[in-house]
Amino acid sequence: MVKPDSASLALDRVRGRVRRGGFVVRQRLLDSVVDASAVRLVVVHAPAGYGKSVFLDQWAERDERPVAKVDLSRPEGDSVRVVDRVAHALAEVGVLTSEANQDEAPTASRGRRRSVTDLVLGLDDTPSVLMIDHAEALDSHRARDVVAELVARLPDSMTTAIGCRSIPFEGFGVYRASPSTLEITTEDLALTEDETRALAEEFCVDCAADQIAAIHTRTEGWPAGAYLSLLAAMSGRWGDAVPLIGGDEHGIAQYIREELLQGLSPSRRTFAMKTAVLDELSAPACDYLLDRTRSQQTLEALADSNMLVTPTDPQHHTYRYHDLLRQVLLADLRERDGAAELELQRRASDWYRLQDLPVEAASYAMAANDEERTASIVVEHARLLFDEGHGQTVRDWFDWFDQDGRRNRFPIVAMLATAATAATGD
Q1: For the chain, how big is the Rg over CA atoms in Å?
Q2: 294 vs 283, 290, 291, 298, 300, CA distance in Å?
Q3: Among the four residues 44, 285, 292, 387, which has the most C-beta atoms within 10 Å?
Q4: Is residue 75 within 8 Å of 195, Cβ to Cβ?
């Protein structure tokens, strides 16, 4: 039996289970695609661990049409190999004529390579499905252009499904507006609380309703996160603290580093680590924090790469990191430079103070354990915030100064706290 407390073995189980389609059945999504001949293009894009391959496998098992599947996770070479792989998969399910897939078809060895045109001319009109999985592995523009050409030229009788971590080819926006296109994203693939419960039942993990709810909330429906949390629960190390399993759990942290962070350039990984101190990411805040420019482009690139970075507004001016990813990024930052996090929190406090947002400014100053900064913000803003009805926030500030004898070092804060207490009669 695989021991769940072995992180490397646990990760192998996650990857293997994903490939086998061993997660809960995604019936709500399957209903939209199985035998849906009116849908010509389905693009399933989400970060690692959202069960894209699981979904495609479950769809393939249930659709009555012939389903040809091409897995591009293995090294491909050039664009011709993509065409050959697609041709072979279509021939195996009987929708490509034998002549079009024989050695006499144009190949590199005969002086002319097989093209998309050759493939299309050899197709019959049998209703069918072509699935191209792990399209993010295509590392050349030409290979991605081939996928785009296939989508454009395959017959209406064929549904093309593409699984990928990011938008698979340039020009996809044209297809988004078509009623024959279905886009399945992170939000669609995220587990519901009921699906999280079903996953726990599949593992025979006895979790109370509030524990399931906590796991679902902490993982935000990320299937790999829920799966790894349940593996950790199976080990028994966490006992009743199952809902507290987070980015510091070794299996989850290793999965995030290997599947999400490893592919980032050093500069983007450093950007992500340092900006993880922010609850909400915006280009101006990141520029100030890092004393740089062009953070908007980096934020957009991280979001487009589907790395558990999501926009929080329709205009994509603000973003956030998935909580588990953020925990891992902060852990990596502390390991690289223990003092960096405190300095970044001080800069974040200064930024929010410049934006006249004292509540956020004080929060970051307290996180940095910077008594002088916090006291300055409290002295400047406590009375006004109290008068505006934010009494609890002000009391929280005073409570912070009650700890470790801080109030004794800042008599003016002590005086404000006494006045606030007298005003409320507490």
Answers
A1: 27
A2: 7, 11, 11, 7, 10
A3: 44
A4: no
| C-alpha–C-alpha distance, residues 185 and 182, integer Å | 10
DSSP H or E segment with residue 218? helix 209-219
In whole angstroms, what is the distance from residue 198 CA to residue 201 CA? 5
Between strands 318-321 and 281-282, the pairing is: antiparallel
Chain centroid, CA 29 distance in Å: 19
- Please state, in angstroms and rounded to a whole number, the distance separating the CA atoms of residues 326 and 333: 10
Dist. CA 338–CA 334, nearest whole Å? 4
269: which 2 tokens? Answer: 């990984």
pTM above 0.70, yes or no: yes
Please state, in angstroms and rounded to a whole number, the distance separating the CA atoms of residues 149 and 256: 33
Edge to edge, the sheet with strand 181-184 lists 67-71, 128-133, 158-164, 41-45, 181-184
- Burial pattern 259-279, b for ≥16 Cβ within 10 A else e, equals bbbeebeeebbebbbbbbbbe
Beta 309-311 vs 318-321: how paired, if at all? antiparallel
Separation between Cα atoms, residue 264 and residue 274, nearest integer Å = 14
Task: Provide the total of helices (H) and of strands (E) in the chain, helices listed first.
Answer: 22, 8
Reduced to 3 states (helix: H, G, I; strand: E, B; else coil), residue 164 is strand
Cα-based angle 105, 111, 112 (whole degrees, multiple of 5): 55
- In this structure, the chain runs to a length of 426
User: From CA 226, how far away is CA 242, in angstroms rounded?
Assistant: 11
Tokens 């041709």 -> residue: 87
Contact 218, 230 (CB under 8 A): no
**Cβ count near 106 (within 10 Å):** 15
- pLDDT for 5 equals 44
Provide mean pLDDT across the span 29-44.
92
How far CA 337 is from CA of 79, 267, 340, 367, 414, in Å, comes to 43, 16, 5, 17, 35
The model's pLDDT over 355-381, given as tens digits with 9 standing for 90+, comes to 999 999 999 999 999 999 999 999 999
Distance, CA of 44 to CA of 164 (rounded, Å): 6
Between the alpha carbon of residue 66 and those of residues 53, 82, 157, 361, the distances in Å are 18, 20, 11, 59
**8 Å CB contact between 264 and 309:** no
Q: What pLDDT was estimated at residue 229?
A: 85
Listed residue (87, 56, 86, 58) closest to 72, CA to CA:
86
* Joined tokens for residue 155: 């017959």
Q: Mind listing the pLDDT tens digit for each residue in 290-300?
A: 999 999 999 99
Distance, in Å, from the CA atom of 409 to the CA atom of 413, rounded to the nearest integer, reads 9
